């Protein structure tokens, strides 16, 4: 037993030394200036975290439809329909069915958006990363908007269009109803009476408008996640994120 005590003491000393070395190394790592490669790595982690949460939030059932911040509505030019739809038997339910279908299409598209964001993030240069870190509070969101928007639009638009083309009551789709409405309105606006009354023709591509609104909602969610990471240390879920964004904390 007496021989065992010195051995345990030595093991304790070595163990304590190892822990101290580890703590000292961690302290040195935290105090060491960040390299540009670390900044790039941290920003990529942040974007993967932020975009991942955003598509998870919007890509589930009711992700768009029950979130008033991002719920997709018909364009302002359709106000005459929305204001008078109650005059049509079952009209309010019909309108809500259209909105539900459009938002479901957006939710489906959002669930498939992650690879597009990942490709965009992987293409980020060190210069991009440094600019984002030192840029505005939504600089990362702006970067993704520049680099991923067109691919996201191509993903969303056919899904929105398919929703608009689906036949509803009377075997007529939302697109057909919209085109009929716009055609009649523009005919009136172009007439002598319409010109005297100052009526303006409507020139709105419904699927393009709704796709744009769907993407507005997506990037709004991404910006919210970016703000969390920039402003809330608890949202920085990895050591690298803590170091990178901690370096610019006020």
Short description:
By secondary structure, this protein is mainly α. 70% of the residues lie in helices and 0% in strands.
For the sheet with most strands, the description reads: none
- The fraction of residues in strands falls at under 5%
- How far apart are the first and last residues' alpha carbons, in Å? 57 Å
Alpha-beta classification: mainly alpha
Measured on Cα atoms, how large is the radius of gyration? 27 Å
Q: What does the overall shape look like?
A: elongated
What is the N-to-C succession of helices and strands? Answer: HHHHHHHHHHH
Share in helix: over 70%
Count, helices = 11
Unreliable stretches, pLDDT < 50, 5 or more residues? Answer: 7-12, 16-30
The average pLDDT score comes to: 80
Q: Report the count of strand segments.
A: 0
Fold blueprint:
Layout: H1 4-31, H2 36-58, H3 79-84, H4 91-110, H5 114-122, H6 126-133, H7 139-165, H8 174-189, H9 192-196, H10 206-231, H11 239-246
Helix pairs in contact: 2-5, 2-6, 2-10, 2-11, 4-7, 4-10, 5-7, 7-10
